[in-house]
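#struct-help
A.M.: can someone run this one for me? Single chain, 225 residues.
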Amino acid sequence: MKTTKTIAACARHSSAKMAFCLMFAGLLAGCAALPEPPARATVYDFGPGALQAAPARQGAALPPLVLAEVGASAPAEGSNALQYRLAYANAQQLRPYSQARWSQPPAALLQQALRERLGRERIVLYPNQAAVQQPVQGRLPSVLRLQLEEFSQVFTSADASAGVVRLRAVLGDAGVAGETLVAQQVFVAQRPAATADAAGGARALAEASAQLADELAAWVHQQAR
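D.P.: on it. Structure tokens below:
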């Protein structure tokens, strides 16, 4: 009798254990069927910038300059995508990297770099600052307006590319009746990418932007502004 009861108990225990194993296996199968979360995009910027405070300006400082917001042509405007062109296939098509983006729109990153570079030699004002309306040596501050026309990694072959930045600059003198054109110029800077990928393109574009900032600062100085 005890043997019969023992066998029955063991059978019930085995059935329960089997049911639990089947349920656990079902849960594992369900988890395995769930889609994996998408990989997070790598975020790039122009680097930390100067790691030490700039020294105090010595001698006669250059006059203040108003730096207007950098404009951008579509589709770069409002987009943080890191973009490239395959010049050997279709140079007219801009393509975004799916897993790489900028921390800010390229125009905003470029403006930050230009403000830092110009600020080494002069006071750089925002258009809405009250100081904009204060004459310096009998003249209101000049205004620098910029339009970003190209900001992409251009591939000339599958394993060779460069970061290309093209910027249109218009320099004007502010006055009571409006701005008077002083000079305008298109700047193009390009730097080779060390690697044929998003990381190489991001670094090349940062270097090209730094080169362009130096050229722009020298150009503004040449206009006696």
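A.M.: thanks! The beta strands are 42-44, 65-67, 71-72, 81-86, 91-102, 124-125, 142-157, 160-173, 180-192.
D.P.: also worth noting: The helical segments are 2-33, 87-90, 106-118, 198-222.
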